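Entry type: protein chain
Record version: 2
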Amino acid sequence: MKPMRIFISFTIFVACIFSQPQGIRAEPHPTNFLMHQHSINITVDSMDVALQRMSRMQGLELSSNIDIARGQGTSWRIVDSRYLNDTLDAIKEMGDVTHSESFATNVFSNWAWLQAEIRVRSHEYDRLMELLHEASTMQDFNYIERRLRHVISQLEGLRGQLNNLDFEMGSARIFITLSAAEIIEETVYEPVEELPERSRLQQIGDAFALSVNSVQVISQALLLTVIYISLPLAIMVAVCMVILRFVRRKRKALVQNISTKELLNIKEDENNEEK
């Protein structure tokens, strides 16, 4: 059991030695902590010529979305800060600048925080390596080894962020918006033939005829409205008259029947009295 434990300890120790992160870089601190970004809108005469000139410019093209048919497009480029002014001058020479904007972001606080975190994790790494050599039980050894791998992972991530930040501080991003110049064609208006002036009497006659037609249309509309309204009313009145006449006839017949019965009763009474 003991040789097996020694073999495992030796394997982990060798792995830690090869994966041991290097100390903090001895490079001089950067003197410029500004990240530059620029935005430029250019109106060009020819999109093809503009793209050819952009392909010969210094720097790296991050993304491009150019539509030559519609005469518009955008491009993200990243250049070294040392060649920033030359690149901007070359872009401005492609056409007319309609908009230009520049701004910078100070990243010193982020850079200092990364440096401090790397220093803390490096001290923790050194301390864990000492504890790894002094581990007396397999449980302690496994715990320290897991913690050591976690610290190494954090160190690698922090160093990656610091490298990216150093790269950003040494470069500048430029956002270019291209648009082709619009050719406005002059519209030629053909002369319109003037109509001959009409006589005053003809104009009055046309106005009178138009007025008569309007009156006729209004009269027909009113007549139709009256018919549509009065016809249902007339039907309702007629129905009511028929119902009333029917009721009166029924009532008259009933009264006659009652009178006839009363006369018969009276005659019967008289006959009975005579007897």
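Comment: DSSP finds six helices and five strands in the chain.
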